[in-house]
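pasting input
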Amino acid sequence: IAGITQAPTSQILAAGRRMTLRCTQDMRHNAMYWYRQDLGLGLRLIHYSNTAGTTGKGEVPDGYSVSRANTDDFPLTLASAVPSQTSVYFCASSKTPDGGDTQYFGPGTRLTVL
Amino acid sequence: GQNIDQPTEMTATEGAIVQINCTYQTSGFNGLFWYQQHAGEAPTFLSYNVLDGLEEKGRFSSFLSRSKGYSYLLLKELQMKDSASYLCAVVDSNYQLIWGAGTKLIIKP
């Protein structure tokens, strides 16, 4: 089934631990994005990648890193998790990096940092 | 700064019509999206407006006025499955998406 998958679905993590959230798409989309969604706030962009091999910082990049070794995968790493990173994380992709291109979202990862 | 305003929550009755408003102040404008998000699920695309006017798609319509920095999503013949959050997002001058906090729509029988 075409689309975006994320893993894990949910995770409880101790503060200070390292964690990688996985994201894979099979639509051959060039652009990929990581967002966090917190109650009462809009989706906030963490990092993005316009094409394989390139990445950029979004609105809230601190404490997170990404890589884009190939077209399909875009993992997000928390080097040393803190409680303020408790959130729902969505990965998304679009055919092109043009903001006017529809973004398709994965099912999300619910992360709790204690 | 960049700002997108939507009502936090709205309630409507099954079978009725509801209008969800979105006003924006952004650095440039290159289009406006509406997404639907059911509780615990991912956002899904509803509509995209780049020119002024009304775009109709079945029971859903979206309107844009660029001069007023204003859009609305109109939902007709409401069904219980329309209970969800509706997210407004603007494409700014850098072709980045700026998201509103969303409007939670509650449908009552």
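fyi Chain A has a mean pLDDT of 95.
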